[in-house]
Write a structure and sequence with these properties.
By secondary structure, the chain is α+β, with helices and mostly antiparallel strands. It folds into 2 domains: about 80 residues, 434 Repressor (Amino-terminal Domain) (Orthogonal Bundle), CATH 1.10.260.40; about 160 residues, Beta-Lactamase, CATH 3.30.450. It contains 13 helices and 5 strands. It has a 5-stranded antiparallel β-sheet, with helices on both faces. A hairpin with a 4-residue loop joins strand 1 and strand 2. Helix 2 packs across helix 4. The radius of gyration is 20 Å and the shape is globular.
């Protein structure tokens, strides 16, 4: 671990980020052009004291999870993120597989979308990043580990994952999940991560085995679905999926499909502001339904 270089790198990246880039309004009394330490702490979901200590070269070795949170908060590029991991004495996350971080450009889009719920997903349905609106809508899924990272695995193994979808839509959603996984398995033929996930799903769920045997293939692009939210009720959402050129990551944007849903989302934002002030929405705060299109 190169403490002094790590401290210098983080401090310079913090000072280089403009508040508007991460959705923070620049007030008239603001003296610094970059982010404050407390703002980095808020965005990364960690204490201000820890940010101070790591910038002063006094911290213990940060975990890969903390480094990933800092990389997202500071909107680091892939090269900058890898450099951060090297300075902290860790191997960077691989280019493919379960440990990937959301691309910096996609995370910036999350900020720009503001009150529109949006998530960055891997091609296997892992939530790599969410904006505040998406956390209020679907819960925080960025800290899930093991096979629970994958929406398709939760759907077939956890009854609570299906509870957010009305009974009449569940078969359609189930088939879409399996067909999309089949498309990923084709693109990543021979990848042990994908093959292992399929094997574990086949062992865990008879429903999955039956649908997998049908060999349906379909890539998720757009959809309209209903979410049953425990706080505000039934939400009819249009789901648009934008895919990176290598098809490794997706930006999922959820917009209200009717007036009633728009009004309920407005209510949800008000409830979120009252219970979780800006920056306080995070791990375990709202209920934990499955993401809208994942």
């Amino acid at each position: 671990m190169h403490r002094d270089q790590l401290a210098d790198f983080l401090r310079r990246r913090r000072e280089a980020i403009r508040p508007a880039e991460v959705g923070i309004a620049r007030g008239p009394r603001r003296r610094t052009t970059g982010l404050r330490r407390e703002e980095v702490a808020m965005l990364a979901g960690m204490s201000v004291d820890y940010v101070v200590r790591i910038e002063q070269g006094r911290s213990s070795q940060p975990s890969p999870q903390l480094l990933g949170a800092l990389a997202r908060a500071l909107r680091l590029s892939d090269d900058e993120r890898d450099h951060l991991f090297h300075l902290a004495g860790h191997r960077p996350p691989p280019a493919d597989g379960v440990a990937r971080q959301a691309r910096a450009g996609l995370v910036r889009l999350l900020d720009l979308l503001g009150d529109t719920p949006a998530l960055v997903l891997s091609d296997l349905g892992e939530v790599l990043a969410q904006n505040r609106a998406a956390v209020l809508l679907t819960g925080d899924h960025t800290d899930l580990t093991g096979d629970r990272r994958y929406a398709v695995y939760r759907w077939f193994t956890e009854p609570a994952a299906r509870a957010v979808s009305p009974p009449e839509e569940r078969e359609h959603h189930t088939r879409r999940l399996v067909a999309d996984l089949r498309a990923v398995a084709g693109r990543r033929s021979g990848d042990p991560v994908v093959a292992g996930l399929v094997d574990r799903l086949r062992a865990a769920s008879a429903d999955f085995r039956a649908l997998w045997a049908e060999h349906e293939v379909a890539v998720r692009r757009s959809d309209r679905k209903t979410l049953l939210h425990p706080r505000v009720g039934r939400l009819l959402m249009d789901c648009e999926t934008l895919v990176t050129p290598d098809q490794g990551q997706e930006l999922l944007v959820l917009t209200p499909a009717d007036t009633a849903t728009r009004e309920r989302l407005d209510l949800l934002r008000v409830l979120g502001v009252e219970e979780f002030p800006t920056g306080a929405v995070g791990r375990g705060s709202p209920p934990d339904p499955a993401p809208g299109n994942s």
